[in-house]
Amino acid sequence: MDWLNVFVFLLLIAGHTALWVAYVNRTHALPWRCPTLHRLRRFHDVMILLGPVLFVVNVGLTGPKLLLGGSWSALSPLWWGMVGVCSVGFVLLATTSLGHFVRRPPSMLVSITSNLVDIAEHFGKRPVENGKYRRLALLGINEQFHVEFNEKTLLLESLPREFDQLSILHISDWHFYGTVGKSFFERVSELAAEHPVDLVCFSGDLIDNMQLVEWIPDTLGQLKGKHGNYFILGNHDWYQRPEEVRDAMTRQGWIDVASQTVDIEIGGKVLQIGGDETPWMGSQPDFSGEADFKLLLSHTPDNYPSAQAAFVDLMLSGHNHGGQVRLPIIGPVYSPSRFGTLYASGTFWKSPTLLHISRGLSGRHPFRYRCRPEVTRILLMAKN
Question: What per-residue confidence (pLDDT) applies to 131?
Fold first, then answer.
C-alpha cells in the first residue's frame, strides 16, 4: 500500500465532497419547490458517495493502481481532469474552514452572555412525539434540546440616543413539524417571556405542518414587546399555506411587515421596520422614507447586499440554522445560501449595516451537533 497516495486520495475525496456540498448549498438558496429540491438533494447524495468509490476502484486499485504503488504518469487525461477539479474543491474547503477559524465578531458586538437551558431536563425526558424523525431527535449526541438564551449588546454609531438600551427579542426558524413536541416550544416561550423587551422580531420559518398552526397561541402568543411584535415568513412557510400562517399570527397581535415598512415613534424618533421574504415571496421593502433608524427582518442573509444598498442600520435573519452540525476545524457544512457557509450564523458588519443571524430554534430535521438552538435578546447602545 502506497500510504502517501492514500493521503493524497483522502485530500481529493475531501475536495470532491466540498464541491457537492457547495452545489447543494447554492441550489437550496433558490426559490424552488420541495420536489425539485428533494431531487437535487438525492442526486447530491448519490454523487457524493459514488465519486470516491469510482476513483478508488478505477484509479487506486485497478488501472494505474496508485494505492498499490502505481505511477501518476499512467493517469488518463480524464482522471487528471477529475484530480484537478477535486484539488480546487480541497482549496475551497481549506479556505472556507480557515475563514471560520480566524473570523472574529465585529467590534460593534460589545458583549455576550449566555444561559444554557436543558429543556429535556425540565420535563424529565426529551419532548419528542411520534413524528417522522423521532429516532433522529432521540440520538444521544443530539443537542436539539439544549437551548442557548443569549443576550448580545450591540453598539451602533447610527443609533439615536433616544433608542439607547432598546431591547429586541430576535427569534427565528421554529419549524413546527410535529417531531419536536409542542411542550418544547411552550417552555422556550415561557422562558423568553420572563425578560421584558421593547420589540419582538420573528424572522421566518414557523410552519412545516399546517395542522400545527393551532400551536401559535400557546407559544408565540405568549411573547409581548412593549412596542409590538413583528414578523415575516420564510421558505418553509411558503411550502405550506403562507396566508393562513399570516392570519394566525396577526390574530395573536403580531404585525406582518413583509414587503413593506412600518414606522413607530419612540422618544420622538422614528424607527422604521421592514420585512423581506424574497426570493420566495413578495418584494423588498421600500426604505426611502424618513427614519432615524432602519431595522430589516430578512429570512435569508443572502439579502445582505440589498440591505446595505438601502442603508439599513440593523438586519435580523435566520434560515441557515448555523449549519445545525458544526464539525471540528471545518465548521458548518450545510447552509442553504448563495454565500455557502459564510453567513451560517453570527454577527457581521459591512457598512452601513450590522447583520445578526440566528441559529434558530428547531428544524424539519431536529438534530444539532456543536450548534445549539438559540433565542437572543439584543440590547442596542448608542455611541454618544
Answer: 85
The cell for 373 is 438552538
Contact call for residues 231 and 249 (beta carbons, < 8 A): yes
Handedness of CA 120, 123, 125, 129 (dihedral sign): negative
Q: Which residues have a Cβ under 8 Å from the Cβ of 373 and sit 6 or more positions away?
A: 143, 144, 146, 147, 148, 359, 360, 361, 362
For cell 431536563, the residue is 121
pLDDT at 384: 74
In the block, cell 448549498 appears at 25
Residues whose CB is less than 8 angstroms from the CB of residue 172 and which lie 6 or more positions away in sequence, other chains included: 202, 203, 204, 205, 299, 316, 317, 318, 319, 358, 360, 361
Q: How far apart are CA 212 and CA 138, in angstroms?
A: 21
Give 357's contacts (C-beta < 8 A, 6+ positions apart): 301, 317, 318, 319, 320, 343, 344, 345, 346, 347, 348
CA dihedral 23, 27, 33, 36 (to 10 degrees): -40
- For the chain, domains (ranges, CATH) are 3-102 (no CATH), 109-382 (3.60.21.10)
**Sheet hosting strand 254-256, strand order edge to edge:** 109-118, 146-156, 374-382, 167-171, 199-203, 229-232, 254-256
* Predicted confidence (pLDDT) at residue 236 exceeds the cutoff of 80: yes
Q: 3-class SS at 65? A: coil
Helices 3-27, 77-102: crossing angle, 10 deg rounding: 70
The span from the CA of 269 to the CA of 227, in Å, is 13
Residues in the chain: 384
pTM score of the predicted model:
0.96
